Amino acid sequence: MPTVPSAEPTADAVDVTALLERGRTLVTPVLKAAVDRLASPMDTVAAYHFGWIDAHGKPSDADGGKAVRPALAVLSAQAAGAAPEVGVPGAVAVELVHNFSLLHDDLMDGDEQRRHRDTVWKVHGPAQAILVGDALLALAGEILLEIGTVDALRAARRLTTATRRLIDGQAHDISYEHRERVTVEECLQMEGNKTGALLACASSIGAVLGGADDRTADALETYGYHLGLAFQAVDDLLGIWGDPESTGKQTWSDLRKRKKSLPVVAALAASGPASEQLGELLAADAKSNEFESFSEEEFAMRAALIEEAGGRQWTSDEARRQYALALDALATVDMPYEVRGQHADLADFIVVRKR
Fold it and tell me: Number of folded domains in the chain?
């Protein structure tokens, strides 16, 4: 199981669980009300995606995710001195955009499982996955704009920019699968857009709704951006070496998709025989008609070469570096001591102890 070099824990696990549960409790009823606006059968398909019902329409308590983004959005309102409830519309909007991206990504990547259940396109078909994703994206803007305040317009502008960057990141991620070489800088920029941008928005949108000035909102965005990069670095480790029982995905899942994730890119950028051999193998893989039928041993060999070339360690170190940059940005924001500690607690949970 991949891990990030750990620091002393900044929080008790129960405290973090309470933060996540608070975000989920505040946001879920409003999120369900938003989804209820969708025309049938999109409302039912969305409810399945969120884990509220099973494939037969019966109530379900399936894993709906850790609710990190809602927790950050609600907490960011408190960073601006507002009540946590002020951040709820922003949390709902971010969660709608996030799930829009998941619905489309699963289809584009051909993923058949998410959170240990069949994905929407697998159960309801590709057309419904596309339509429901589009509908969730439209709902996100609706939720913010109907508030009708200047601060809501500021929040909507930040969310729109983050969404465009998220889509840019996904486009580059797909294009990199067909390139033999991608630089570390290109990979970091792609992941900063695909993951960092929306987590940055989640970390600031509640504060914007609470009347925070741009300097405060920008600093919170910087915190969330680096936290997103750290989160994605750990996710990249899990994408190769993660336990399928924990990730809900196949072993070597990113290698099967030819993903140019950070461990792969860092290994290829290194010098030495392992890096050279890996480069030759991946170049041959790109031209192979038999890639889909590779054995587990062949994927395991590529994972071993990535580790031998230093890609696994470099990515772990980069996660730690981005985590530290997130906390540095947090230190520039004037906020209540308890709220600052809770931000640090969430960062620790997301990155240091993410499994």
Answer: 1
